[in-house]
Amino acid sequence: MISVSDLEFFVRVVAAGSLSALARELGVTPPAVSTRLARLEARLGARLLTRTTRSLKLTHEGQLYLAEGTELLAALQGLEERVSGTSQGPRGLLRVNATMGFGRRFVAPAVSAFCEQYPSVQVHLELTDRLLSLTDSQIDVGIRFGKVPDSRMVAKRIANNRRFLAASPGYLARCGVPMVPEDLVRHACLVVRSNELAYGTWQLARNGKVKHVRVGGSASTNDGETALAWALDGRGVVLATEWNTAEHIAAGALTVLLEDWSPVPADVYVVYLRQKNLSRRIKVFVEFLQQWFAARRPLPR
Fold first, then answer.
1. How far apart are CA 280 and CA 117, in angstroms?
2. How far apart are CA 58 and CA 196, in angstroms?
3. What is the spatial distance between Cα 167 and Cα 152, in angstroms, rounded to a whole number?
4. Where, residue-wise, is CATH 3.40.190.10 in the chain?
5. If DSSP states are collapsed to H, E and C, what string results for 210-225?
6. Which residues contact 51 (CB under 8 A, 6 or more apart)?
7. How wide is the angle at C-alpha 285 spanned by C-alphas 68 and 14, nearest 5°?
8. What local confidence, expressed as pLDDT, does residue 125 receive?
């Protein structure tokens, strides 16, 4: 017999990442969590997790139980929402993942406004340097940049987000202004390691013509906020996004370069796994984000 409470417990174990982390969340001892997991595995007659004190790894049976169990829980939650009617509004736990910089500056305020409007939804915002897998980490909604080439996910754009090259007036006074893409080779370029772009190669397009420029400099980072701070300090040229730099450009702290050349945009998408019965709280949250970001477009340059 399927136990909903066991399913929910197992999903929370995987989401927490370790038995001790879940024990802290539940306010119980790690042995209590371990004992309950052992009882679940004994009832199923299968090992679900290979575990140590600090980490968990799903077995084949665990992956199956997690994947199909998550769908069952989502279907049950959707059924309860439909039976209870829409007058009560969305409710329940919603797990959201975003990057550190963009998450702090833009997603966190949106979540705060959402919680005020929908107090029956408990939002857990997970900010990470590396974006989490929605399936493995039990994340309901992810905030991503660029299109997501995964047919298992639904991706809805919530904000246009152009990229462009920029540098501080002080840097340009010392080092000159690049007039063509090839000039970037002679400049200090603040390179950000990014999953969707080749490291150290900037792609620029104009009138259907694309150029790939290999750039470098004395400083590089995996954090866009750090690269932006360096550019503001006059350390070099940065490949920036309009949401992060609009205020600095408007204030004159950064100057846009090579305006007739367009880097690959980093439009912002909200993504979630395809489901037959999508939770109402996910639907409402996605619609809320679309409206929230549309009302806060950066100033046009």
1. 15
2. 28
3. 39
4. 89-159+267-301, 163-263
5. EEEEECCCCCEECCHH
6. 18, 19, 37, 57
7. 35
8. 92
Which range of 40-54, 102-116, 186-200 scores highest in mean pLDDT? It is 102-116
CATH annotation of 89-159+267-301: 3.40.190.10
The number of CA neighbours under 13 Å toward the Cβ of 58 is 17
Q: How far apart are CA 224 and CA 176, in angstroms?
A: 24
Say how many residues make up the chain.
Answer: 301
The C-alpha atoms of residue 95 and residue 140 are separated, in whole angstroms, by: 5
Q: Tell the residue number behind the tokens 């949106």, with chain if given.
A: 110
> The tokens 């063509």 sit on which residue?
180
- Distance (Å, whole) CA 259 – CA 62: 52
Q: pLDDT at position 1, please? A: 44
CA–CA gap between residue 34 and residue 23 (Å, rounded): 9
Cite the residue boundaries of each domain of the chain with CATH code 1.10.10.10: 1-87
Neighbours of 49 (CB within 10 A): 20
Rg of the chain (C-alpha set): 23
CATH number for region 163-263:
3.40.190.10
- Fold observed for domain 1-87: Arc Repressor Mutant, subunit A (1.10.10)
- Tell the residue number behind the tokens 């350390």, with chain if given: 235
